Amino acid sequence: MTDTIYALSSGALPAGVAVLRISGPKALDAAAALVGPLPEQRKAVLRTVRDAQGQMIDQALVLVFQAPASFTGEDCVELHLHGSRAVVAAVYRALEALPGLRLAEAGEFTRRAFENGKRDLVEAEALADLVASETEMQRRLAVEQSFGGQSALYMEWAQRLTKARALIEAELDFADEEDVPGSVSDQVWAEVGDLYLEVEQHLAEAKAGEIIRDGYKVAIVGPPNAGKSSLLNALAKRDVAIVTDIAGTTRDVLHVDLDIDGYLVRFFDTAGIRETDDVVEREGVRRAKDTLEQADLVLLLQEIDSDPQQFAVTGDAEVLKVGTKLDQHVHRTAYDLCISTKTGDGLDKLRDLIATKVKQTWSGGLVPGRQRHVHYLKEASHFIQDALNGTELDVRAENLRGAATSLGRITGRVDVEELLGVIFSQFCIGK
Q: Which superkingdom (predicted)?
């Protein structure tokens, strides 16, 4: 925190504009060494950028943000340069030559924002998700979490637990005092019970957060030559998988990511499931079965009028029976849907069906965004449950304290030092 750091905070070069951020105790002096007298705070002014020898590097817009009114909470300067690799490299060399300055590490600007109380951990993680978002729903989920709504919910729960604990401890410590009720259990435990239900309902939405961030997984399975690879290619509208008439062509799991109505949908093409003596194909079948277990939706493909095969589908995935090669056969009611990748018949209906199902997972609202959040929410839920089921008041109060601490660890309010390196190392340089 004593170093002054700098890095490119805009996109990949070359670009129209490159935003270079400098943050730390020497940020103002470092910027002044490059551009001369600095403009007043939050006023963009055009300046000439020069190196230590006075050679002109570029002209840039200069913005000054003095602590604590900056992204990091420190003195911060932004140089809006022309987005040339050579320009940015020259400015880097000029900054590197100044004492006390160094290139920022991954996520270091955001970590400093956290350390200085500008953002909590939930907001910081959501900011990383917002930067990395590729679909509309990923953006919406990140926005829901990055601007304080999620944190406010967890803080409100923690405050309710603290209030309940205070009332219980008042009963324990001042039971003989006239101004303390003989028992506060009725008012405390009814509210704690309501809170427990709220936490459990929130946890039930965790799958939705996982699907939005990591994608809705659709496994395409079936016997050899059922048209699995052809369907993957048709959905992707390009040749992702090799298609032949030879059974067992697909040996590994192939996947393609598609944006369907703002949702990330990941389609997995798997090896044909059958008994085989081929070692490589057998491994492909094993991987196909693993993919099946992790899927949110299974498309069970089978050529229309072929002998039926039975597949054991484990897990909670919904299964759609899809008849293939409709161009060669008549539609059969034994299938949920019949398609032809050759003529395109049924493909639009299949896409619409998948879109309908993925939209049912999340349409907005606060949901747990990461496994770390889920872990501590479950921990808090267990503490609350133990408090509700306990008999000794002092032990029940301690369980409520444990629940509040678990919620605090989600936002970073308590005991999170060991988490920081892991969390902020996932950020890009310059953020």
A: Bacteria
Give the predicted TM-score (pTM) of the model. Answer: 0.78
Type of residue at 133: S
How confident is the prediction for the chain on average, in pLDDT?
85
**Which residues are part of a known binding site for GTP?**
225-230, 244-250, 269-272
Binding residues for Mg(2+): 229, 250
Nearest to 271 by CA among 234, 304, 246: 246
- Can you say how many angstroms the Cα of residue 336 is from the centroid of all Cα atoms in its chain? 33
Average pLDDT on 397-426 reads 74
| Structure confidence by residue, pLDDT tens digits, 57-85 | 999 999 999 999 999 999 999 999 999 99
Domains delineated in the chain: 4-104 (3.30.1360.120), 124-205+368-424 (1.20.120.430), 213-359 (3.40.50.300)
Q: 54-68, 76-90, 266-280, 392-406: which range is least confident on average?
A: 266-280
pLDDT at position 306: 80
CA dist 405 → 105, 188, 367, 379 (Å): 30, 19, 20, 10
> Would you state the structure tokens that stand for residue 175, as one six-digit string?
């039971």
d(CA 209, CA 150): 12
For residue 21, the SS3 value is: strand
> From the annotation, which residues make up the binding site for (6S)-5-formyl-5,6,7,8-tetrahydrofolate?
21, 78, 118, 431
Question: CB–CB of 165/336 below 8 Å?
Answer: no
Spacing of C-alpha 289 from chain mean position = 26
For 30-39, what is each residue's pLDDT tens digit?
Answer: 999 999 999 9
3-state secondary structure of 351: helix
Integer angstrom CA distances of residue 409 from 50, 135, 402, 422 = 46, 29, 11, 14
- Polymer length in residues for the chain: 431
- Assign 419 a pLDDT band (cuts: 50, 70, 90): very low
Annotated binding site: 21, 78, 118, 225-230, 244-250, 269-272, 431
What residues are designated binding site for K(+)?
Answer: 225, 244, 246, 249
- Report the amino acid identity of residue 284: G
Strand, helix or coil at 236? helix
